[in-house]
């Protein structure tokens, strides 16, 4: 039987995270899923836009991550789409993340969900919240870079 190549395809992404936070470090975590949740994730039916992570009693959990029920799954007993799910990380990583997140202004932010070696993984970022002026500055830099690229493309068209 041929081995399937998952290729670390991103199945869900939190696009607001880079807008709202300066991401300083990233951590990979496995997820404890039940029933047909993995099938829904493989079909890219997950949303982490409003999700956040907490650490309690030495365990890390993700809240408000929405995984739509699988259409062909158990319809009589579907699981709650936004239930709190446990994440799997090494104890040393959890302690490091706990110590860093206790500092003022830091949060644990889910960045993306992907499949690696057949298992669903969640990329967590340690983010420091941006102030409003930081967001405007980032947007101005992005717009300036876009304008520069547009002018360069136009010059290349003229040179041909």
TrEMBL record:
CDD domains tied to this protein: SmpB
Signal peptide: none
A GO cellular component annotation in the UniProt record: cytosol
Keyword Translocase: no
Gene Ontology molecular function terms on file: RNA binding
Intracellular or extracellular location(s): Cytoplasm
GO biological process, one term: trans-translation-dependent protein tagging
Stretches the record annotates as Disordered: 134-160
Domain of life: Bacteria
Protein's UniProt keywords contain Cytoplasm: yes
Membrane-spanning segments: none
Entry-linked PANTHER family: SSRA-BINDING PROTEIN (PTHR30308:SF2), TMRNA-BINDING COMPONENT OF TRANS-TRANSLATION TAGGING COMPLEX (PTHR30308)
Name this protein carries in UniProt: SsrA-binding protein
Organism, as annotated: Paenibacillus anaericanus
Classification of source organism: Bacteria, Bacillati, Bacillota, Bacilli, Bacillales
Chain's gene name: smpB
């Amino acid at each position: 039987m041929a081995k399937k190549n998952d290729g670390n395809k991103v199945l869900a992404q939190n696009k607001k995270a880079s807008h709202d936070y300066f991401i300083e470090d990233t951590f990979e975590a496995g997820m404890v899923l039940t029933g047909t949740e993995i099938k829904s994730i493989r079909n890219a039916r997950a949303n982490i836009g409003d999700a956040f992570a907490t650490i309690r009693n030495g365990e890390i959990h993700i809240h408000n991550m929405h995984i739509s029920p699988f259409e062909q799954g158990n319809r009589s007993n579907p699981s709650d789409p936004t239930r709190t799910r446990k994440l799997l990380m090494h104890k040393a990583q959890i302690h490091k993340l706990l110590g860093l997140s206790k500092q003022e202004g830091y949060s644990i932010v889910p960045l993306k969900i992907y499949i690696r070696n057949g298992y669903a993984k969640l990329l967590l970022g340690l983010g420091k919240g941006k102030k409003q002026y930081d967001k405007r500055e980032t947007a101005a830099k992005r717009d300036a870079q876009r304008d520069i690229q547009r002018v360069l493309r136009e010059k290349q068209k003229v040179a041909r």
